[in-house]
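A reminder from the course coordinator: this example appears on the midterm review sheet, so study it carefully.

Given structure:
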């Protein structure tokens, strides 16, 4: 409490909310996992957990799992259900932000228009429940707790899919109904492979995690990488993008080439975004961003080669500062920001 400076008339009074006046759940749902945090009104995390989960199991099963995790966390912290005032949820699909409904989610069959908000309100009746695309949520996390100090910024997530969170004039820009930033379906090769969206040559079909893994499997089976073949045989499973990053770090040239090609394709897509939007900062996140220097340098090189000189004059391209925590912090602030605005 205290007094602010006068801006004409009586001085405004400054009021702080008690951190324990209520609590927030942040939920970061990925294609194969869920990350959950309980936070106070300052955004400080009191408890956090994660678990394997599969969006292909469908919303009833996965969301029941999340609610059970929430209730266990509340019991451990001795916090009553009615103290939960907000729940922020990030999901890996396009969301109509006003309703919180997923619309034609490519990797989430069975989630179309499922009432996620209402499902959580069945248990947490006092809570404001907000749902947004996971990349918007990650961008929000960086905006509120991380490295984004730029007014105009792009956050790119490279994982099972590819998407962008757009920061415009210091705020998350969602477009008309919430699907701004779906850059994974920008075409980078009109003769490229078929994408699950039905088009060909989408950058997601050629540079996301599954595409990287498929290229690695091909290199192993064709005998172009003895290291990848050895990894596949030793681990008794198909290779992943993480395996490619590990092999590249150990000096495997075919793996390095796959990562560099991935960066080149993503940079080609980003050059169109840079020419159109002229951001001052691009942050790279998601699981594939753990591929290291080769990926980042290839993205930078491709963007600089294909973008107009003026649009890259003050442009920085970096890995996101919060790394794997961007989604969970963003989910917390998504819930927190809307408690007093809805």
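Designed residues:
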């Amino acid at each position: 409490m205290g007094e602010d400076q006068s801006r004409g008339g009586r001085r405004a009074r400054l009021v702080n909310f008690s951190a324990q006046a209520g609590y927030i759940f942040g939920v970061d749902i990925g294609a194969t996992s869920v990350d959950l945090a309980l936070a106070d009104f300052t955004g400080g995390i009191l408890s956090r957990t994660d678990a394997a989960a599969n969006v292909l199991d469908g919303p009833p099963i996965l969301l029941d799992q999340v609610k059970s995790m929430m209730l266990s966390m509340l019991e451990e912290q001795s916090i009553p259900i009615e103290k939960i005032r907000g729940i922020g949820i990030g999901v890996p699909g396009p969301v109509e932000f006003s309703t919180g409904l997923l619309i034609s989610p490519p990797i989430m069959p069975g989630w179309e228009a499922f009432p996620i908000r209402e499902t959580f309100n069945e248990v947490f009746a006092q809570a404001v429940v907000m749902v947004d695309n996971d990349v918007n949520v990650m961008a929000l996390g960086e905006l509120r707790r991380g490295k984004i100090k730029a007014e105009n910024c792009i956050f790119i997530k490279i994982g099972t899919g590819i998407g962008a969170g757009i920061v415009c004039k210091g705020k998350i820009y969602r477009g008309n109904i919430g699907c701004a930033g779906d850059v994974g379906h920008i075409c980078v090769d009109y003769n490229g492979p078929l994408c699950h969206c039905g088009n060909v040559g989408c950058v997601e079909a050629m540079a996301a995690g599954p595409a990287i893994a498929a290229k690695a499997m091909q290199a192993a089976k064709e005998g172009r990488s003895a290291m990848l073949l050895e990894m596949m045989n030793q681990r008794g499973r198909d290779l992943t993008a993480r395996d490619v990053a590990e092999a590249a770090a150990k000096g495997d040239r075919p793996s390095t080439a796959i990562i560099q090609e991935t960066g080149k394709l993503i940079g080609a897509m980003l050059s169109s975004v840079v020419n159109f939007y002229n951001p001052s900062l691009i942050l790279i996140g998601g699981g594939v961003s753990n591929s290291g220097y080769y990926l980042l340098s290839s993205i930078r090189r491709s963007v600089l080669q294909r973008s107009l000189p003026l649009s890259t004059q003050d442009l920085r391209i970096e890995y996101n500062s919060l790394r794997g925590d961007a989604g969970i912090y963003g989910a917390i602030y998504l819930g927190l920001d809307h408690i007093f605005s809805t």
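The chain has ten helices and 14 strands. The radius of gyration is 21 Å.
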